[in-house]
Amino acid sequence: MTESESGAVPPGAPRPQYGEYATPEEQAARIRQPPRPSPPPVAPPSPATPAARAGLTPGRMIDRAVAVGLLVYGLLSMVSAIPATMDPAPLLTMLGLEADEVGLTTTGGWGIAAAITLVAGWFVTAWATYAAHRRGWILFWIPLVGGFVFNAVSGILITVALLSDPAVVDAVLRQSGT
């Protein structure tokens, strides 16, 4: 009896190559080797510390601590800068001008816009830092960039407030000697 008569190869089909239709057990029996045992299932190692369970390496813990420290610093800086956005006297004193001499007692709507920018900027930065933390990204740069961007925008708003007053511009020009 040939292979085609036993039903191993369908009639009219090409003769199979060695092991083409054979299962791994049949192949092992033909080559006279015991079948290879499947590897036992491996349980994932259980980390010993909560930090290791959370996937926190020492570098990640430092990154998180630096980001939180920068956010706290930004919060304290924002809280202390809000009064400065409303009262231009300290800023004018730093420029060598007297607020009474200039007659500028408030920054008006520009100062309010600068204060709102600082507050909104801190919340946006804190939210972006939290979102990046949830995704497992590096965090420290987000408070740095957020602080730079929102303080720059706030500074531009205060500058516009000061330079929109002709008395301040005249006092600055007199002081510079032009």
**Beta fraction of the residues?**
under 5%
> What is the makeup of the main sheet?
none
Q: What is the tally of beta strands? A: 0
Percent in helix: 55-70%
Q: Please state the oligomeric state of the protein chains shown.
A: single chain
Overall shape: it is rod-shaped
Round the mean pLDDT to the nearest integer and report it. 81
Using the CA coordinates, give the radius of gyration: 37 Å
- State the separation between the terminal residues, measured CA to CA: 116 Å
Structure write-up:
With 178 residues, the protein is mainly alpha-helical. It has a domain at 56-176. It is built from 9 helices and no strands. It has helices at 3-6, 24-30, 50-53, 58-86, 89-94, 99-102, 108-135, 141-163, 166-176. Helix 4 runs parallel beside helix 8 (141-163). The longest helix is centred in the middle third of the chain and has 29 residues, at 58-86. The chain is rod-shaped, with a radius of gyration of 37 Å. The chain starts with a helix and ends with a helix. Residues 1-5 have low confidence and may be disordered.
